[in-house]
Every structure is written in C-alpha cells, then in structure tokens.
C-alpha cells in the first residue's frame, strides 16, 4: 500500500469521537486492508437471532454461543463465519486469514469444517471502507489501532470488550478504558 501500513488483522477501537451509531464503543477486527479499501467485523455485539434461524445446518457447529453476531452495517442480508482453526488444519471449507483465524465457507458441509475449527462465530453483515476512507478516519481521531489477542475475536462478547481491549494498552491509551459515557457528568 502506498504510504500506509497494512492493518489487516489489527483491531480498530472506536475513540470517544464516535459518540453514536453502530460504531460507538465498538471493536472491529480488520479482515482486509489494502489500497482498494478495508473490510472488517464488529466484535462483541450478539444479536437476539440464533444461528439456527439463519443457517439451520450450522446450528450445531457454532461453538459456545448459539447467537449470530452483528458484524456491521454493510450487506446485512449476508453472513460470515469466522473460526479459530485447529493447528495444522484449515484447508477444506475454511480459508486461513492470519494466525489461527479462518473464514468459513458457510456453503460447505458443516461436518467437513467442524473437525478443523475449535470455535466459530457467525457474523451478520460487515463493516466496509472505500479506498482511503479508513486512513482518513484514523487520522481524524475516530479509531485507535491496536493488536488483537486470541480471546478478542471469539471468546469475549458484550459491551465490556471495548473497555477490556483499551485497559490492556500501555500509557494514556489504557486510561481510555474508564472514559465515562457522558464526560459532562464527570
């Protein structure tokens, strides 16, 4: 990428500048970042909808949590399966993203995929940015860019994820974890 580092695999953590909407206090895993733009999924936002209602054949393979998760406002009529891959696996029905994470082909036979994954989550929709848009948002102060940890993607859920990711950051960035919902009341 010309002039910008590839942020694929990093987490975007919403700054207090994003005070409303779907990205307020969100944590986004970047699935792809390149000259053509970026795509990611919002982490930690379970839906009331069960995976079995969306994808009946995938209700069993989704481990730990039967709920679908909100991945973002783009193409909310589609779903993405993100999984932690078993070491040495990830070839049939699963495309390795980076590290131990893979993207599951939800059209594949679940029985072929389940022996390759240790955990999986289904995300409805995704977050997307056109070329240069994400870089502009980062420069303007809308996002902190931090490294992910294994538990961030598939094991920690709910609104506390934002605070937990920030709390482990060094220096003043870690202090943001206790930023009040309404600073005027502080």
TrEMBL record:
InterPro entries (UniProt xref): AlgH-like
Reading the lineage from the top rank, the first entry is Bacteria
- Signal peptide start-end: none
Q: What GO CC terms are in its UniProt record?
A: cytosol
Positions the record marks as coiled coil are none
What Pfam families does the record point to?
Answer: DUF179 (PF02622)
Family, as annotated: Belongs to the UPF0301 (AlgH) family.
User: What name does the UniProt record give this protein?
Assistant: Uncharacterized protein
Per the UniProt record, the source organism is Nostocoides jenkinsii Ben 74
Its ancestry begins with: Bacteria, Bacillati, Actinomycetota, Actinomycetes, Micrococcales
């Amino acid at each position: 990428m010309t002039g910008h580092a590839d942020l694929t695999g990093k987490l975007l953590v919403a700054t207090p500048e994003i005070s409303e909407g779907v990205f307020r206090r969100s944590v986004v895993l970047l699935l792809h970042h390149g000259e053509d733009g970026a795509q990611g999924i919002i982490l930690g936002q379970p839906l009331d909808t069960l995976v079995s209602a969306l994808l009946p054949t995938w209700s069993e393979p989704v481990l730990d949590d039967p709920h679908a998760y909100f991945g973002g406002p783009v193409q909310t009529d589609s779903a993405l399966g993100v999984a932690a891959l078993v070491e040495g696996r990830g070839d049939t029905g699963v495309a390795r993203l980076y590290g131990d994470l893979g993207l599951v082909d939800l059209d594949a036979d679940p029985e072929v995929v389940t022996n390759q994954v240790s955990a999986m989550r289904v995300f409805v929709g995704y977050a997307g940015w056109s070329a240069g848009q994400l870089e502009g948002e980062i420069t303007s102060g809308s996002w902190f860019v931090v490294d992910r940890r294994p538990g961030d993607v598939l094991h920690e859920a709910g609104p506390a994820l934002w605070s937990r990711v920030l709390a482990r950051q060094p220096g003043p960035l870690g202090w943001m974890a206790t930023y009040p919902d309404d600073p005027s009341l502080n």
